[in-house]
Amino acid sequence: MEFKSILYQTGYEEKPVIEEPNYFKNLNLDQLIKAITLDKDDYDLKSFFFTLKTNGKHPFSSSGCH
């Protein structure tokens, strides 16, 4: 049986980010993600928090923010 993601469209081009982004420590997001994923290491959930969902557009572009 083929795995189908409910988070990403079929053919999603961006790969999930495995390493914590640099800004996570500055915003204390590292502590939040650590608390959320505590005792859930078997599920490898951290990469879902590290990957920015963009829908193919730059998330901080002026056309995408109003």
**Strand/helix succession:** HHH
Q: Any idea what the radius of gyration is? A: 14 Å
- Secondary structural class: mainly alpha
Shape: flat
Total count of strands:
0
- Biggest sheet character: none
**Beta-strand content estimate:** under 5%
Instruction: Determine the mean pLDDT.
Output: 74
What is the helix content?
25-40%
* Total DSSP helices: 3
Can you give keywords for this protein?
mainly alpha
Word description of this protein:
The protein is mostly helical. The protein has a domain at 25-51. The protein contains 3 helices and no strands. The protein has helices at 23-26, 29-36, 46-50. The longest helix is centred in the middle third of the chain and has 8 residues, at 29-36.
Per-chain topology:
Blueprint: H1 23-26, H2 29-36, H3 46-50
Report a brief summary of the structure.
This protein is mainly alpha-helical. Helices cover 26% and strands 0% of the residues. The radius of gyration is 14 Å and the shape is flat.
